[in-house]
Amino acid sequence: MTVGPDTLTALLKGKDVLPAGWESVFGMVAREDFVPARIWPDDSDAPLDRDRDPEAWRRAVYSDRALVTQWDDGRHTGAAAGRLATSSASTPSTLAEMLYDLDAAPGMRVLEVGTGTGYSAGLLAARGCRVTSIEVDPQLARRARENLAAAGFGNFVEVVTGDGTLGHPAGSPYERIQVTAGVRRVPSAWVEQAAPGAVIVLPWGTDYGSGDCALRLVVDPDRRTASGPFTLATAFMKLRAHHPHWGRYGGAALPEDWAAYAHPTTTTLGYDDVVGGPFDPVALVLGLCVPDCLARPVLHGALGGTLWLYGADTGHGHSIAAAHFAVGEPPTIRQSGPRRLWDEVEATWYWWHSQGRPTIHDFGLTVRLADDDTVEQQPWYRTPDHPLVAPAHEWTPPPSG
After folding, report:
1. Which helix (H) or strand (E) holds 286?
2. Which domain holds residue 311?
3. Is-catalytic flag, 88?
4. pLDDT band for position 251 (50/70/90)?
5. Whether residue 286 is found in the same domain as residue 191
6. Which residues pair with 134 in a beta bridge?
7. Are residues 196 and 56 located together in one domain of the fold?
8. Which residue of the set 88, 120, 172, 336 is catalytic?
């Protein structure tokens, strides 16, 4: 049986993630027209090559899998996987769910940040939207233009090579803004270039974890504020400007006399409590309540693991904490610097647990542009009227036993 766009449409319908009015769109836009000859499904080390195994390649293209299409910002060559995946064709079900959040209607002016292969821009064009898509990588932008032209959408999508965080003021105001790369700070340009009532959908997260959550912001009439809930746990490649800056966290290196002055303590929590899986809500909650914190878990196989926490220098120096968990031994915590990072993480976990372990859908974010056009990001719990405040000094862990 030959697989194709109808196969993908049926798959998305079966998962109940196909937005109303989009069935014909997904059937009209062939994903294979936007996927290169060599792909790495699900970040695999083993590539699929269309010329060597066309059937396996097509099955992967029309499956619900993410397909890596570029490694190491294009410096990588050869069949072996590179060091860092830097562009991909997103999982179709994730794309469909984010298009549901976007709620783009025919005739709307849409800004897309992160063109990638051009597939998402093609879907929006087939929907009847007027699309401007920005891609920072000139090579990817060129290929996307070629893909869109070959698929018949070249006259309906303007692909701009540039920094997506700056938007594209020439095409504004936009009624919808779709972002296809992970974001840590919402740029002011996206809010400024949005029309009143516009919807911005983006993968957002914190430096505490590598994952993201789809965030649906609605822009206020003043075009200075936007707010909305998290809707979907996911993971995207980050905007190149939003990768963690190691220098901001002191180079994430331990000073030689670390053990001499670190404050020792212990905990009743375990490694899995504060690390969680890739789509576990605890990582989002800890990141929201423990800002300016870079977390790096190191699993030691069946023997346990260590969670390293690095606090950014916000004017008082860097902070470091290491929580070591070993099988059959009590956890050992060491902390130094102006912040007690582990204490903040622990107090947040107990607050989250006391609330019944709410999911990502119970949280959201409000973005405000200050007078100097800097961006303030305020997380909230359940409603925008309830700002999320770090509970570090309000919650005490129960005694062990």
Report:
1. helix 281-289
2. 249-354
3. yes
4. low
5. no
6. 113, 160
7. yes
8. 88
